[in-house]
Specification:
The chain has 619 residues and is of the alpha/beta class. It has eight helices and 48 strands. The chain is elongated, with a radius of gyration of 44 Å.
Length: 619
């Protein structure tokens, strides 16, 4: 045996000897104390000899007291006398909430019920360290809510008793089911009847010509529509007020003010019978724009527009009996009709353009040319909703401060408006700043004193919500007045967008045409042009190359050519492109879908369905 093995054997014998000695000293009668839970009661066995005393540990949901002392952790017990054990139950929940709508026209009662749980001591065998645990033993049904408590809450909120629906309150409180019911309703105001302007005259730009012979003049677009002096043009129907309603507090809710129509007499028009009837003072073409009715006489240029005549600018219609020569401009507030041709010139008209001859080079535009107007009107509609939210949020904040001792309760209304505009409704100042910027742009230079007054008024309102200006707001009624003014100005500006102006030309080459309405090329050729129509684009002959766009549809005879440039046609997602013949290489763009035709196609109409370019027969 080696020295290392001898020493290991010696240590092992000594350890075994010490263990046997300890067992001899403890004795066979030593036994630890133990605790057990039997049928919900705590039992204890005291230790024997030098055995360990039992330890009791209160678990979650179990409270143990020894006399007046609460046991919060492991405790050595000498006896269970004077020991009380309580198992905590989870109580049921029966609660409610009263919500008053933002417009104070409805009171909503929201109830919720949750059952409780009864717990008991978990059974446990005898052990020296016992952790008391609780286990579910049953459920506690939720109690119904006393309807009298809810009625007292409604009285505290000053809800008018005649408007409370007692049956709904009882059903929600006693049903012991989650519910959200309307328990009080106000009486909505009866809306007024808005005034209106009835136009009794025909506003079509042209009427068909009467031919004495059985022939059709393809270039004849009809005669100008006109009225005679003394003809009735429009009648004004006055507004009728509405009837007030009542909110849930019993307070009167006024009906909105009826919209009063505006019938303004322009040149050539006279108002009679207290301004209720408009009649023509002169013979001419009736126009109704921006709330103003006028009769515009026609300006006739009996020769070519050239360096002798100079540029032509007229507020009514312009008829040019000859040509418009190079570098000249013809601009009209109504229509422009050219009986000859236009060569590298500019023709601008708000109500439409007709060119009986050729259009070679130059620019033709028909309709309003103010791209920022649509953005302004859209922004005004958004701000209308924003100001409604601002007033509602102000009243909610004011009510909250009145019911509390908040340090802001003594602040002015202007301070609270500015606080809301800097926090909860921070988008409102940003949008007013955007509106002010759009109105200040040079492209938004409207014509006419009324338009300039509207711009000045809108910019003034916008600045009331920028910087420190909201501090000067005195009350919610002032914000409501600004909101009504925004609505009125938005309605006025929308009239600019409602008019559609068409362009009709016989032949077109290397020119640019824009129209808010439709564009029609009635002759045999359209070559290398750029055309943008708000509505339809009709190309009666060949369209060899260029870019062509329309708001609803493009209808052509022949599109493309062999080796003479590329023709690109574009319409929105819901638009169509149709032709009797498409040559290879024609590019089609419908919404976000594009395609290039690789073969000659006859009598097809293209459209987009389910995100794909499709076609059908075009007859």
């Amino acid at each position: 045996m080696s020295t290392v093995e001898f020493l290991r054997h010696l240590v092992t014998e000594e350890s075994q000897g010490e263990l046997q000695q300890k067992q001899i000293n403890r004795g066979p009668q030593d036994r630890p104390g133990r605790l057990a839970v039997i049928q919900g009661e705590l039992h204890m066995e005291e230790p024997q000899g030098t055995g360990a005393w039992p330890v009791l540990v209160p678990g979650p949901g179990v409270q143990v007291r020894q006399g007046e002392r609460k046991l919060t952790g492991p405790t050595v017990l000498e006896s269970i006398e004077g020991l009380s054990i309580t198992v905590e139950n989870e109580p049921s929940v029966s609660d409610y909430e009263v919500i008053i709508s933002r417009d104070n026209m409805r009171v909503i009662l929201k109830t919720w019920f949750r059952p409780g749980t009864v717990y008991k001591l978990s059974e446990a065998d005898f052990q020296q360290r016992l952790v008391l645990k609780a286990e579910p033993a049953g459920t506690l049904a939720p109690k119904p809510i006393d309807p009298a408590v809810v009625l007292a809450k409604l009285q505290q909120l000053h809800v008018h008793p005649d408007l409370i629906q007692l049956s709904e309150v009882r059903q929600a409180c006693l049903g012991r089911r989650d519910a959200e019911v309307v328990v009080a309703r106000g009486v909505q105001p009866v809306p007024p009847v808005d005034g209106r302007v009835e136009l009794v005259c025909n506003l079509d730009p042209r009427v068909p010509s009467e031919h004495s012979e059985d022939r059709v003049d393809y270039l004849d677009r009809g005669s100008f529509n006109a009225v005679n002096a003394g003809d009735v043009l429009a009648c004004l129907h006055p507004a009728a007020p509405g009837k007030p309603g009542k909110n849930v507090y019993g307070q009167e809710v006024p009906a909105r003010q009826p919209r009063e129509p505006r019938l303004t007499a322009g040149p050539g028009v006279k108002l009679i019978r207290g301004g209720r009837i408009a009649v023509a003072e002169v013979t001419g073409r009736p126009l109704y724009k921006r709330g103003m009715l006028q009769v515009s006489p026609q300006l006739v240029i009996g020769r070519n527009v050239n360096v002798v005549t100079g540029n032509v600018q007229f507020k009514g219609d312009v008829l040019v009996m000859g040509d418009v020569e190079e570098s000249l401009t013809v601009q009209a507030g109504g229509r422009v009709d050219v009986r000859g041709s236009v060569y590298h010139a500019t023709v601008l008209a708000e109500a439409g353009v007709s060119i009986a001859g050729k259009l070679i080079g130059g620019t033709v535009a028909a309709g309003s040319r103010q791209p920022g107007l649509t953005k302004v009107v859209k922004l005004l509609r958004i701000l209308d909703r924003d100001l409604e939210q601002l007033v509602a949020a102000f009243r909610q904040l004011k009510g909250h401060l009145a019911a509390s001792a908040d340090h802001c309760s003594g602040r002015s209304d202007g301070y609270l408006f500015k606080l809301l505009l800097e926090t909860r409704l921070a988008q409102i100042p940003k949008r007013f700043a955007q509106l002010d910027g759009l109105l200040a742009q040079e492209g938004m230079a409207f014509s006419g004193e009324e338009s300039l007054d509207s711009i000045a008024a809108l910019r003034l309102i916008a600045r009331r919500f920028l910087g420190a200006a909201p501090l000067e707001l005195r009350c919610p009624a002032e914000v409501e007045r600004y909101r009504e003014q925004l609505q009125a100005h938005a309605s006025e500006l929308e009239q600019f967008l409602e008019s559609e102006a068409d362009v009709v030309v016989h032949y077109c080459q290397n020119a640019k045409i824009e129209a808010t309405g439709s564009i029609t090329v009635s002759g045999s050729l359209t070559y290398d042009c750029e055309m943008v129509a708000g509505k339809k684009l009709h190309l009666s002959g060949e369209c060899r190359s260029g870019f062509y766009s329309a708001g609803s549809g493009i209808y052509a005879q022949t599109v493309g050519s062999k080796g003479m440039g590329v023709a690109t046609l574009s319409v929105p997602q819901d638009g169509v492109i149709a032709a009797r013949c498409f040559y290879p290489g024609v590019r089609l763009r419908i919404g976000g879908v594009q395609g290039v035709l690789d073969a000659e196609v006859k009598n097809r109409m293209y459209f987009v369905r389910e995100g794909r370019l499709q076609s059908r027969h075009y007859s």
